[in-house]
Amino acid sequence: MKPLTRSASLTNYAAMAQAAGLAPLAMLREVGIDPACLDSPDLKVSSEAIGRLLENSAQRSGWQDFGVRLAESRPFLVLGPLAFLVREQGTVRASLEMLIRYMHLHNESLQLWLEEDAQQARLCFDHVGRSTPTRQSLGLSITVVYRFLKQALPEDWEPVRVCFMHEAPRDMRAIRRVFSNRASHKEAINGIVLLRGDLERPLATSSQLGRYAHDYVRALSADTPRSTATQVRQLILAALGTGQCSLSTIARQLGMDVRTVRRHLDGEATSFNALLREVRRELAPRYLVGPPRSRNELAMLLGFGAPQSFTRWFRNEFSVPVALWTTDTQPSDPARSR
User: Fold this and answer.
1) Which three-class secondary structure state does DSSP give residue 116?
2) Which residues 6+ apart lie within 8 Å of 236 measured at CB?
3) Calpha distance 159→122 (Å, rounded)
4) pLDDT digits (tens, 9 = 90+) for 262-312
5) Which residues pair with 5 in a beta bridge?
6) 3-state secondary structure of 249
7) Which of 6, 48, 59, 260 lies 20 to 30 angstroms, CA to CA, from 91?
8) How many whole angstroms separate alpha carbon 114 and alpha carbon 326?
9) What percentage of the chain's residues is helix, strand, coil (to nearest 5)?
10) How much is the pTM?
């Protein structure tokens, strides 16, 4: 089943497209989106179609940062009930955990997870189930969350940096306007890097209604079933660097026993080990092109008990030792390198 996104993702699209010299209704129809979605924020639209719309808009307007500009023009409340829940948490950590857990209510293709070390925390963004480029979609999502944190924390708060894996746009004016001097391109992740201590900061947006907001959003989530594979993959992302990433742990988090999880995954033509391998294959190259990390840290981030286990796995997966890996040695289609 193709992932869907709430039509609220199109908020202010028409005005932005017109400002860029585009015909918004024609752009929507070209990718198969009903223009009625512009007036109805809770319709479900193909995530793939929205991704194509944003990429097409960027290409034809010449605005390489179209997604960032679109996010700059909209409030965090476009996330609907999820925005209410996220704003009502007591700390940044609790807020981001709720955002990660329930993002599927707004966008089924967008996955977020937290990585932490002794000094920093990284809120990472990625899209699954998408065959089209994701540069604009990720720029939009990262900007929305960044602007929420700026609103919810003291005025002098800044992240360590806001990371994009793609190259910087030719025109950096909008990027500097939105992110000041914190944006960094050609990074190992798409996401927001904070000081680890920032996770415990209180939110100015909280009004002590978090419990009621959680009950409401949890009820909505119960009406939005997701595949077991999607849920397991999300939990693997969240648990991989904690030392607690096991099938039994994830089964408990899902409220199932191990045999039931295995049966569900079998029915979806996958397995826990296959999903674990998939996640590791995606993350390992990103960690290697980012800031220098020791073998111990790489092993920990990828859920290995020892550096030797990581280096042996890496060589088996990528047919090259870790020390010799470069972006040129990565297989173009990881699914075929088995």
Assistant:
1) strand
2) 245, 250, 275, 276, 279
3) 10
4) 999 999 999 999 999 998 988 888 788 766 778 888 888 888 988 899 999
5) 45, 107
6) helix
7) 6
8) 25
9) 55, 10, 35
10) 0.76
Dihedrals φ, ψ of 317, to 5°? -75, -40
Distance CA 157, CA 67 (A): 23
Size of the chain in residues: 338
The residue assigned the tokens 């990027």 is 175
Within 8 A by CB and 6+ apart from 310, the residues are 295, 298, 299, 302, 304, 322
Tokens coding 104: 């599927």
Residue 5, helix vs strand vs coil: strand
Residue position matching structure tokens 């002794």: 118
Amino acid identity at 145: V
Distances (CA, A) of 265 to 25, 77, 179, 279: 41, 35, 41, 16
Given a cut of 50, the residues of the chain with pLDDT beneath it are 332-338
Residue reference for tokens 């998408």: 130
Q: Which two tokens stand for residue 25?
A: 């209704």
78: Cα separation from own chain's centroid:
17
Is residue 125 exposed (0-12), middle (13-18) or buried (19+ Cβ within 10 Å)? buried
Tokens of 298: 């790489």
